[in-house]
Amino acid sequence: MPLLDGHDPSALKQAARRIADGGLVAFPTETVYGLGARADDDAAVAGIFAAKGRPADHPLIVHLAEAAAAEDFAAAISPGARRLMARFWPGPLTLILPRRAGRAGAAAAGQASIGLRLPSHPIARALLRECAALGVAGVAAPSANRFGRVSPTRAGHVTQEFGPDLLVLEGGACEVGIESAIVDCSRDEPALLRPGGIDRGLLEAALGRPLAAPDAASPRAPGTLEAHYAPEARVLLLDAAALQAALAGPLPPGLAVYSRLVPAARAGMAHRTMPDDAAATAHELFAVLREFDAGGASLIWVEKPPARPSWDGVRDRLQRAAAAAGPTGTARRSASEH
Question: What DSSP letter does each residue of 50-100 carry, written as one string?
Answer without folding.
Answer: HHHT--TTS--EEEESSGGGHHHHBS---HHHHHHHHHH-SSSEEEEEEBP
